[in-house]
Amino acid sequence: MKQKLTIYPVNEFDGLRRAGRLAAETLDYITPFVKPGVSTGRLDQLLEEFMRDHGGIPATIGYHGYTKASCISPNHVICHGIPSENKILQTGDIINIDITVILDGWFGDTSRMYYVGKPSVKAKRLVETTYMTMMAGIEQCRPGNTTGDIGHAMQQVAAGENFSVVMDFCGHGIGRVFHGLPNILNYGVPGTGTKLVPGLVFTVEPMVNIGTHQTLILSDGWTAITKDRSLSAQFEHTLGITENGYEIFTLSPKGYTYPPYQD
Ligand code: MF3
Ligand code: CO
Ligand code: CO
């Protein structure tokens, strides 16, 4: 059976704008706290407090048994890193912070990379390439294009730097639900997949690795790492397809794109 896609009328995007903005503000807010010596558990507490203080609910708490308000994924962790008081950040680490807030029933899902102190030249190149990868995917978002166009554009950018895109995780439809159709793969064949139409709402969230694309899940059942322990990076936006293109709901109010972030 053909599965149904949810279309959210473009003139009703307001709830998505507000949820997306709160998610982005939460990532803005945490920026100065990301430094050597802080635990990822502490960052998670601060993120949860900020979301709740602004009327949001962390969507990850209780999601398939997950108990934290964020995913924090350092270095070779690809995604779904579980924040912990025992995980202390060290200078040279690169981390992804991924949060999803529910505001008035609407979901906003976004992630960014952060530098803990000064990154290596290679780590910096990975992080910057991953941002360019996400944006290349987003630039394909317009009516008439397909999800394959998005994936293809993303894989091209990563491959251009001899990096690999993760195939075991992907972007997803979102809106009144956390994870729905369509799947937005980080690779693809132009012109194939789901045709984009106004009102389609989804995330673009490429994970890019320096080495192999292959993944492993740790025994905690969540933490995804690169099989070869090479560095991995990710950025994520939630966006909607409009009549002429796209609208990103999770743009940073502070204008932050990729690190280092400064006011
Ligand atoms: N925010 C993640 C995503 O981009 C999902 C995290 S689910 C969790 O889809 F349970 F691991 F938190
Ligand atoms: Co997502
Ligand atoms: Co996310």
Q: Architecture, CATH level 2?
A: Alpha-Beta Complex
Report the uncertain regions: none
Tally of alpha and pi helices: 4
CATH hierarchy, class: Alpha Beta
Question: How are the SSEs ordered, and which strands pair?
Answer:
Elements: H1 14-30, H2 40-53, E1 57-58, E2 71-74, E3 77-79, E4 94-103, E5 106-115, H3 121-139, H4 147-160, E6 164-165, E7 171-173, E8 180-184, E9 201-204, E10 207-209, E11 215-217, E12 224-226, E13 232-234, E14 237-241, E15 246-248
Antiparallel strand pairs: 1-4, 2-4, 3-12, 4-5, 6-10, 7-8, 9-14, 10-13, 11-12, 14-15
Helix pairs in contact: 1-2, 3-4
The structure holds 2-amino-4-trifluoromethylsulfanyl-butyric acid and cobalt (II) ion (2 copies).
Brief synopsis:
This protein has 263 residues and is α+β, with helices and mostly antiparallel strands. 24% of the residues lie in helices and 24% in strands. The chain starts with 13 loop residues before the first helix and ends in a 15-residue tail after the last strand.
